[in-house]
Amino acid sequence: MSTRTSDLAPVVVSPDGPSGQAVGEAIRQELVDSIRANAHGRTANTRSSNTLSGQALEKVREFGAMHIKAATWARILDGGVDGGPMWERFVRTANDAGNREVEMRATASRTLTDLVAPVIAQAKLRGKGRFFAHVNASFNREAILAMALNTGNESNLQRLLDGEGWTIDKLQPMLDTLTAADWAFVQGVWDHFETYRPLIAEKERRVSGKEPTWIEAAPREVTTADGQTVQLRGGYYPVKYDPRASARAAEHADAEEARAMMHKAYTASTTRRSFTKDRAKRVTGRPLLYALDGVYNGLNEVIHDLSWHEWLIDTTRLLRSTAITDAIRETYGPEVHKQFKEWADDIAVGERKMTASAERWGSWMRQNVSIAGIGFNSMSAAIQPLGLSNSMARIGVKWVGKGLMRSVADLGGRSEERRVGKE
């Protein structure tokens, strides 16, 4: 894996202990002093209005605040200068974490693409599948691959079998349909999850002082559908229950969402880390989800946690500081501080499933478009014509003009290339 363990070191310095507390206090004081100094005596109304006009004005202010990116707010609080304390402590470190996540996802995506290519080349994964009379059910290749992925350790296998009320003998006919290429994909997925173990271990030691309890692999030998004998090392795979198959599974999913909402309201924002939690020894009556979503969702969860967990610890610690909170609220208003908190909350959630389709769409747009540094909001299109004036103010008219001339020249060159190509 290309990501170095050292790349995942904490991005904001606020460790525990006397020396760390002193550093943390110095950072907080630096931020407070900067915010108040750059406000130049500005004061905001922090009281709620009881008049219709006052309440309407509050809504307008909140609407305006939510359509300005956190990075822009940080620069405003820094007095409009580059590299100020708010930018350095919040935005630059967030950019670093985001870059790590993009790089790690790109690596995982390439790995998974290579792994699944031979499987897809054999036959389609979905469709009605094949009927297995002994369990009175039909399963397609994707479902059977998902079953196979849950045989890499005793914990997953127990949940797979007891979720359906099967014995290993009832599971075996489905597994017997898999080829050597299918099993190579399964072992490859297990191996890829294993590459994250050193990174997870180091991060957890930094955060909590100890490593999580690891799921131990269960080696086994299989005979493939194309007559080969394959030795499997086994490995970790995230347990994903089917919420439609069991009321308990649905209740568990709802409880996860409820806990996330409670954390958002009352505690520090943090990433989801189901892969570091101790598993119950035995779970029955909750069928697993037979889809390859577990591969992608599980990897996204691991990568998101490795990229953002420590940033969120440090960022929420600063945002929950009374001194910093008061400095922002008293100079620019409660709605601005709220934007920083919601920014951290959205990062913590990552791609965690949302219940409403509109939320899923909005979240997808925010998560993916933000990677490119583009703010997705209703004002973006309206302010684009004014973007050049902003650029001129930042870097000068001369350099904006040179950039425009070069862009126009490049467009002309590409047009000429297309014309010649057509001829």
Textual characterization of the structure:
By secondary structure, this protein is mainly α. 63% of the residues lie in helices and 3% in strands. It is built from 17 helices and 4 strands. The strands form 2 sheets. It has a two-stranded antiparallel sheet with strand order 1-2. It is elongated and about 80 Å long.
Lay out the secondary structure.
Blueprint: H1 18-39, H2 52-66, H3 70-77, H4 85-122, E1 130-132, E2 137-139, H5 141-149, H6 154-164, H7 168-175, H8 180-194, H9 197-208, E3 220-223, E4 229-232, H10 247-266, H11 293-319, H12 322-332, H13 334-349, H14 357-371, H15 380-383, H16 387-395, H17 397-422
Helix pairs in contact: 1-12, 3-4, 4-8, 4-11, 11-13, 12-13, 16-17
Short description:
By secondary structure, this protein is mostly helical. Helix content is 63%, strand content 3%. Strands 1-2 form a two-stranded antiparallel sheet.
Which labels suit this protein?
disordered N terminus; 63% helix; two-stranded antiparallel ribbon; mainly alpha; elongated
Category from helices, strands and their pairing: mainly alpha
Which spans of ≥5 residues are poorly predicted at pLDDT below 50? 1-16, 253-268, 353-387, 414-423
In total, the number of strands is 4
Mean pLDDT: 79
Enumerate how many helices there are, as a single number: 17
Strand content: under 5%
Write the H/E string, N to C: HHHHEEHHHHHEEHHHHHHHH
- Could you estimate the helical fraction of the residues in percent? 55-70%
Distance between the termini: 46 Å
- What is the global morphology? elongated
Largest beta sheet: what is the strand line-up? 1-2
Describe the main β-sheet briefly.
2 strands, antiparallel
CA radius of gyration is 26 Å
